[in-house]
Each structure stands twice: as C-alpha cells, then as structure tokens.
Amino acid sequence: MKPCILDIPPMLIKKGLPFAIYCLPSKKKFNLIFQRDNSHHEVDILDIDSASGFVIANFETAKTGRLNIIKPDYLISEGEDIDEILSFLDTIPDEDDYSFIDNYIISKTEYLDRAGYLINMLKKEELKKVVLSRVVQKKLKKELNLSQLLIMLKDKYNSAFINLFHLPGEGTWCGATPETLFKKVDNYVITDAMAGTQLIGEENQQITWTDKEKEEQYLVSLFIESNLSELGIYEYEKIGPLNVCAGQLIHIQTQFKIPLSSLNENEGKFIASLHPTPAVCGLPKAEAYLMIHKAEQHQRRYYTGFLGPWKLENQSQLFVNLRCAELGKNKINVYVGGGLTASSNPNDEYKETVHKSKTLLSIVENL
C-alpha cells in the first residue's frame, strides 16, 4: 500500500526533523508541517504576529515569553501527493531522535497531602484558585503505531484539536485538547473560558454542576473580562455558559467573540495576558504560578502551554495543551490536572485526574 501523510511522522522522527501533524476541531483532514533541517526557531510572544508556522509554547512561556515555531518548509494536507516528501527524506541521514524525560511521578498519598495543603491555603483566601497537576506514566507492550494513534484520537475526540508534534532534543507529544486559546474567524477573535469537569455516564444524562464547578467557571470568565478591560476592550459578545463534550468528559464553556480591530494589532499582548489561563494555572495568576512551582515536583513542560497553526493557509488558531502525553519508545507520560478552590475535596480532585488520564490511556491500551 502506498504511504500516506499519516505514515510520515515516524520517518521525520527518525530523521530528527521538527514537525507537527494536526486536525482542527470537527474537520476531516490532517495537515502536516515540517522543516528541511533540525534548526530551532523561537520568537517572542509579543512578536508572534511577525511569525508564520506551527506555534508550540510551554508552561514556562509565561515567564520566558519565548515560543517555538516550526517553519513551513513543507506543508501538505491529507490526500495530497507525498512523492516529493519521500524523495527528500531519502536524502536525509537517520538521527533516530527519540528524546524522553522520566518526569517525577507523584503517589496518590502525596497528591492528596498537597491538594489538602493548597485547599487550606485557599480557605485562608491567599488564593482564589490553583491548578494542581500530576504525571501518569504508562509502560507500553510494544512501540506506538503513530498513524493508528492519530486515527483513533480523531475518531474518539472529533470536536477536539488533535495533534502530534516533535521537536529535536525535546521529544514527541500528542494530544486531543478541547480548549481554544485564540482563534481568528473572519474579523473576530474567539477565546474560551473553560472549567468544571464531569464524567459522562448514560445517554441523555442530566448534568448538574456543583457550586464549586460554577465558581471555577465564573473565575475563568471574569479573568478574561478583566484582561479585555485592561486592554481597553469593552465591546465583545459573550456566549454561554454552555456544556461541551470532550470524549467521555463534559465541561462548562463560555466563549468570547472580540472584534479583531479592537486588538489594534496587539495579538501577542492579548495572548500573553491569557497564558497561562486560570483553567490551567489559577487566580491571581502570578501568585498561582509561583504556588504551582512550589507544590509540583514534576516539570509541566508542554502541558498547559499552547499550540497550533499560525498564519498557515489563512488559519491562526491556538489551543491550550490539555489531554496530552509525552511519547517514548516503551512508555508514555500523560499529564493531567484539576482546579482547586476553597470548596474542593482532595479525593474528588484525584478522581478527576484519573478520569482525564483515560482520554489517552484508553486509546494507547487499544493500539
């Protein structure tokens, strides 16, 4: 059988070339972008509008202000001829560039202790919300079939942003994220406020949100409105809150639709003000960010960063990197987290991270 676009990623990893393959929410086709060489390209978040390519930011971008950009030396869509790509790859020597970091794996007891400590701090009103995350490691019985992984992610999470990317020396990541950070549509910019998580049970199940979950959503929405106010933006459309599904989970989402002209070409400043969102960090943002570094022993790396196509074929869409995993040859690290408030229960929060980890684990286990 003739190779297709989904067969290219393992070849690119073997050649040590930066790439991203992705499918936008509710779209049918995958797109592949990759570079001709392994050079590393960065841009300051405030200068993002001067760049073009696939953007990959990590959690620490909030501090460094630096973004990775995969240059569009090659950009093709599913169904297009790949003979030229195959011929080019034949000229590149093998590097076998598999990088994987054995991150810190917290025990359930440790997680509950730290969650309890943070909740007590929240009760003292030192913080309104903080997101505590952890890493779930899964050993693999055999090497991952990346094309099958992408197909299954797309089939199961059609409304999410499906992605797989590789940065030489940094590793290979995949994900299915439901949360839009920044999306240009016609003359508007759209951003999501998303919080609250429940496991979907039976069909037509009646969803009832707790006061804690409603409070989380209120805080995230208020954060976006405050940022818009600081940028002098007061005219925008607020849609929601709505219930949105992502695989077997359901979330509360409020969407903000902002006239592009009101940003005055300050897209980078707006994106910087959003990252990291309260949905993945907390409130107040600066204090929550510092608390995360004290509470978490693992490195978040690209989890809770953001990524997506930027100025590629008239598409500029960035998504918060949730429901993601770092891929190794014989194991993967799945990154999950949950928002803590003063009314949180440590055991409930732990269960939420277990549910979130199943997004990717269920697929990997069935490959």
Structure at a glance:
The chain has 367 residues and is an alpha+beta fold. The chain is built from 9 helices and 18 strands.
List the keywords:
367 residues, alpha+beta, 9 helices, globular
Q: What distance lies between the first and last C-alpha atoms, to the nearest angstrom?
A: 20 Å
Mean pLDDT comes to 91
The largest β sheet comes out as: 9 strands, antiparallel
How much β-strand is present in the residues?
A: 25-35%
Low-confidence stretches: none
> Helicity, in percent?
25-40%
Q: How would you describe what is shown here?
A:
With 367 residues, the protein is of the alpha+beta class. The chain is 29% helix and 32% strand. The protein has 9 helices and 18 strands. It has helices at residues 8-15, 61-64, 83-90, 108-123, 146-156, 211-230, 267-274, 285-295, 346-364, and strands spanning 19-23, 31-34, 42-44, 53-57, 66-70, 74-77, 129-139, 161-167, 171-177, 180-185, 188-199, 237-246, 249-259, 282-283, 306-312, 315-320, 324-327, 331-340. The chain has a 9-stranded antiparallel β-sheet, sandwiched between helices. A 9-stranded antiparallel β-sheet has the order 3-5-4-15-16-10-11-13-12. A hairpin with a 2-residue loop joins β12 (237-246) and β13 (249-259). It is globular. The two termini are 20 Å apart.
